[in-house]
Design a protein that fits this description.
The protein has 130 residues and is mainly α. It has one domain: DksA, coiled-coil domain (Four Helix Bundle (Hemerythrin (Met), subunit A), Up-down Bundle), CATH 1.20.120.910. It contains 4 helices and 2 strands. Strands 1-2 form a two-stranded antiparallel sheet. The radius of gyration is 19 Å and the shape is elongated. The two termini are 31 Å apart. 14% of the residues are buried.
Length: 130
């Protein structure tokens, strides 16, 4: 299978790379506030169970915070994976090419959502929007 090659200018790709790199840094900082990085799995973090004490109200607060952090951790990890995949696509020259129809993704879409891997038409089809 032949990979479609990106047809964007070097300036555009450098701008997107800067945006993605800053977003990656932000996501890693957010994750570091309440997780530890899993050394065995790329882009995987583990929420830390808080320790406020042994009283019932402290235990309840620990469970509540942990329960809040789990979906946040999952969302941040997904965003980080998307950013890293986009940076990889820039590196291998396939950034901005729809993974379904292999046509270029519109620059405006990529500026609005730099991690997009599908063109608007394919995304609408997939999500069944008309």
């Amino acid at each position: 299978m032949v990979k479609a090659i990106s047809k964007f200018s070097a300036d555009f790709l450098n701008n997107i790379k800067d945006i993605l790199s800053k977003e990656k840094e932000r996501l890693v900082k957010e994750l570091a506030k309440f997780t530890t990085k899993n050394p065995h799995v790329a882009d995987d973090y583990n929420s830390e169970f808080p320790d406020y004490g042994d009283k019932d109200d402290e235990n309840a607060a620990e469970v509540a915070e942990y329960a809040t952090n789990l979906p946040l951790e999952e969302s941040l990890e997904k965003s980080l994976r998307d950013v890293n995949k986009s940076l990889d696509r820039i590196g291998d020259g396939t950034y901005g090419v729809c993974k379904y129809c292999k046509n270029p993704i519109d620059e405006k879409r990529l500026l609005a959502r730099p991690t997009s891997s599908a063109c608007v038409e394919c995304k609408k089809t997939i999500t069944q929007e008309l």
